[in-house]
């Protein structure tokens, strides 16, 4: 739901629908529900409706971690932090669509950047809650996470404005963020599983190797986040910025591939128990 919300937000902004609803929030052109046809008002309203449902589900996930059994403290903390910063995201979103309305100058680069960064933070926290809440990792999951990271970053490059493969139209922009966030989540999982590697005794993955994997994945994540920021109109996208964007994409792919290459010798996970001799 959060991943789809992210892409809906990008699509809404790219079509200019964020300026619809007569710069009103929470009403839309003096209506609670606009005409249910594909038009800027409906696109903006649908984005808000999806965000509202997703927000309640985020709260529900946090409650589940506290009321359910077997969840570790870190899982509860990640889910709770996502809820804690959710009001900030709602506030920034409201400011963004009130162009010279309730908040003068709301539709600006700075508010767009804040909206994107806070949304990415919530998405990352939910990803960690999912990863940590899903039980102990293993070597196979670690390799899969690295593979998803590479696939997501490469796919995002095809939709990116830096690569002249497709016109960077609203659908391509939404696809860029879906694939880019998938790659981001793969990197988050790679770091999380590699952190547990020594404790879980993955075959062929000692503390030093795990540290290398974490460092490579973290570097790839930093470069990928840079491309996600450049995917919006936060700078005047000149030829120089396009080259910087291409370099960032290349670095993200190379470092993610390096993490996957480092894991090539990792086998199945051991259960951590000592074998019984004499039988």
Automatic annotation (TrEMBL):
InterPro entries: COX15/CtaA_fam, COX15/CtaA_HemeA_synthase. Pfam families: COX15-CtaA. Keywords: Cell membrane, Disulfide bond, Heme biosynthesis, Iron, Membrane, Metal-binding, Oxidoreductase, Transmembrane, Transmembrane helix. GO terms for biological process: heme A biosynthetic process. GO terms for cellular component: membrane. Its main location: membrane. The keyword Nucleotide-binding does not apply. GO terms for molecular function: metal ion binding; oxidoreductase activity. The chain crosses the membrane at residues 46-67, 79-102, 114-134, 141-162, 174-194, 215-232, 244-263. Pathway: Porphyrin-containing compound metabolism. This is Cytochrome oxidase assembly. It comes from Halorubrum tebenquichense DSM 14210.
């Amino acid at each position: 739901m959060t991943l789809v919300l992210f892409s809906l937000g990008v699509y809404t902004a790219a079509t200019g629908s964020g300026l619809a609803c007569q710069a009103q929030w929470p009403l839309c052109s003096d209506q609670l529900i606009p005409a249910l046809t594909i038009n800027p008002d409906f696109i903006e309203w649908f984005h808000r409706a999806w965000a509202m449902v997703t927000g309640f589900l985020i709260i529900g996930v946090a409650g589940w971690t506290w009321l359910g059994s077997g969840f570790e403290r870190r899982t509860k903390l990640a889910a709770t932090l996502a809820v804690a910063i959710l009001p900030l995201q709602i506030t920034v979103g409201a400011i963004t669509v009130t162009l010279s309305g309730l908040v003068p100058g709301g539709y600006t680069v700075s508010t767009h950047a804040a909206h994107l960064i806070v949304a990415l933070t919530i998405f990352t926290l939910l990803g960690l809650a999912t990863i940590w809440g899903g039980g102990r990792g293993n070597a196979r999951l670690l390799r899969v996470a690295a593979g998803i990271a590479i696939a997501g970053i490469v796919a995002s490059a095809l939709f990116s404005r830096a690569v002249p493969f497709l016109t960077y139209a609203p659908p391509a922009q939404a696809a860029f963020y879906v694939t880019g966030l998938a790659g981001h989540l793969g990197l988050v999982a790679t770091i999380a599983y590699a952190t547990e590697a020594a404790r879980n005794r993955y075959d062929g993955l000692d503390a030093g190797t795990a540290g290398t994997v974490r460092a490579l994945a973290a570097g790839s994540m930093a470069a990928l986040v840079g491309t996600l920021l450049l995917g919006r109109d936060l700078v005047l996208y000149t030829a120089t910025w396009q080259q910087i964007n291409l370099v960032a994409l290349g670095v993200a792919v190379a470092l993610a591939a390096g993490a996957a290459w480092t894991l090539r010798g990792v086998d199945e996970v051991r259960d951590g128990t000592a074998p019984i001799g004499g039988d």
